[in-house]
Every structure is written in C-alpha cells, then in structure tokens.
Prior knowledge:
By secondary structure, this protein is α+β, with helices and mostly antiparallel strands. The chain has helices at residues 13-18, 38-47, 67-74, 121-130, 156-160, 211-222, 232-241, 277-285, and strands at 8-9, 22-26, 29-34, 50-53, 58-63, 87-93, 99-107, 112-116, 138-141, 146-152, 176-178, 190-192, 201-207, 228-229, 289-296, 307-309, 315-325, 330-338, 347-352, 355-362.
Amino acid sequence: MTQTDDMKRTALAAVHERHGAKMVNFGGWYMPIQYGAILDEVRTVRTKCGLFDLSHMGRVRITGKDRERFVDRIATNHVAAMKPGDIRYSLFCHEHGGTIDDLLIYKYEDAVYLVINAGNTPKDMAHIRAHAKGFDVQIEDLTESWQMLALQGPQSQAILSNLTQIPLAEVKYYKHRAGSGGVNGVENGWVSRTGYTGEDGFEVYVPRAETERLWNALLEAGKPHGLTPIGLGARDTLRLEAGMPLYGHELADDINPIEAGLEFGVRFAEGKDFLGRKALERARENKCRQLVGLRAETKRVPRQGYNVHIPGGAAIGFICSGTPSPTVGASIGTAYVACEQAAVGTRLEIDMRGSRETAVVVPLPFYKRAK
C-alpha cells in the first residue's frame, strides 16, 4: 500500500520498510501488517519470541490531586484500590452501557497512565477531556512523544534481561517497574509485564528519540533466542487465540462489557459512580446474549458479520472475529449468540456466504499457555 500524507508514522516506520514489512493503514497509522507469512509469525511468538512496534497505541498521562477520583469516574475499574506498580484492565462506557473503548490503567505514585486503542485515540481523548470539568487534573497525550514496543514469547525475559537492571523475575503479570537504570540506558524508560498475545512478555516505553536504538538492541540481544519482528496481522491471530477482545469486533458502542465476558474489568465498588454503572448493573440482571468461542468443523474461516444459526433454523447471533489458528489446528471465531445457545458443546451453523458450515461452542480462551 502506498503511504499517504494523512497517515501517522511511528519512530520506526522507515525501519519497518528496511526490514521488508508489508505496510498498511492501520487505524490511521502507517504500520507493518506482516514481515513474512502471518501464521509463521504466530508460531514464532508461541515458541520463541517476537518484537512488535505498538507505538500507534494511545498513551495518556493524568496528574493532579483528583487524578484517581477522575479516572474512577470515567473508567470501570477501581483506581483507588490499586497500588503504585499495579496495572488494571478497564473500559470506558457510555451511560447506556455500551463500550467506548477498552484500556489499561497504570498507577504511579504521582500519576495515572492510560493505554488506549490506536484508532480510538481521538474519540477517547475527547471523552476524557469532556468529563474533566470539576476535577483538578492535568491531561497529557503522550502518543507522539513516547513510543511502545512489545516483546512477546517464551524467551522474552531472557532477551530483555540483557538490556535492563530491572529485576524482571520480580515484575509479575500486570505489574510495571521503572528505575534501576531503566531500559537500554534510558533512565526514565519503564517496563510492564503485559501483552496481547497470551504469551509471557513485556511492553516497554521509551521517549521517541530512543526507540530505534532500543529496537536494534533488542533484535541483537534476541538473535540467539530466535527473535524476529512481528506484524499486526499475527498479533490479531494471537490475541484471538488467547480470547482477548478487539474494539470494533468483540466490543462496540452497542455491546456492553457484561455480555462480552469482561466483568473482571468492572468494579461495582461502593461510592464508585462510574459512567454507565446503572446500565451495567441492569445488564448483569438481564443478559440476553453472550460472547462465545466457536471451533469450525471446516477449513473455511468464520468472518466478522457472518450470521450464526440454530442448525437448520433461525439466526441467533453473529461472528465478531475469525482466523485460521496454527496453535489450535482449526478455524476459530468468536460470536455473540443468544444465551440459550451459549453452552459449551452446542452445535451451531455459520452462514458462510450462503453455505451453512457447522461449528461447536468451545471455552474461551482457545489457547492458554502452560505456567
């Protein structure tokens, strides 16, 4: 795809081109969709390690004395209950309960950081700023000035340990750490044990000017471990295998977190009057559809928007995401279906362009790594 002037570029855009990546418009950003075969890239992350440029993701810093009370108003998880170093999955919701976006919340001693989806960054920033009135907060969009890389796979700790004095073994899942020399000599860089692949791994944050140096250092340190750059196409397959939602697929303005199976990211704490709370409380009592995993009994792939039917009967849902899964060894997909048809083992049919193909409801996630 030819680059156009209206696409944003991460600090590594030219680096991706030199690596021979196929570049596309991804949420308004000029990004690598793949370097080689997507399914081979998936296998690399599952068995060795992959390096991702995630600098298109939105990064927001919120400071001021009301920062926790403010984020507790606009997001569904409970910031006041977090400790510095904690990370929580959360969501922004409309008052009617539909999802504006999902995000990660990072808590520091003096700030709260939010990591939001790339394509949603403009509307998320508008949402954040629209509700800031009456709170003593300062809101900074760091998306351009700070960049974000992800190291994902079984070898990730061994590789990253070469470039930091941070004791990575002590950084547990959904925790973050800075200091101790930072990363690759960047004192204010920080590391989180997070990811969007279902594998062990880290996400690393550094100032824009340090990004290419860190990318090159990681690739060099990762050579003995089989580290390679990975595109966003493989990332989508990896996250689907791991049962992780993607906005615009499993989440949308008319889909709430309860039916999406994301109640772990919603805290109905006493005194926490977050946007959409009343609607989500009602959704807990009146759920009529549910997100499920489907394993197709065909090599054809379920695609977003395909209707899901009772065998030989009426439509009772729709496909959200689908992919051929090299890890599962089958075509898989997620779908919203009527609660009465959501039990594991239920046989359903997917209308694949006029042909009914059988699929079975299976537990989510499709894949879970061994501890």
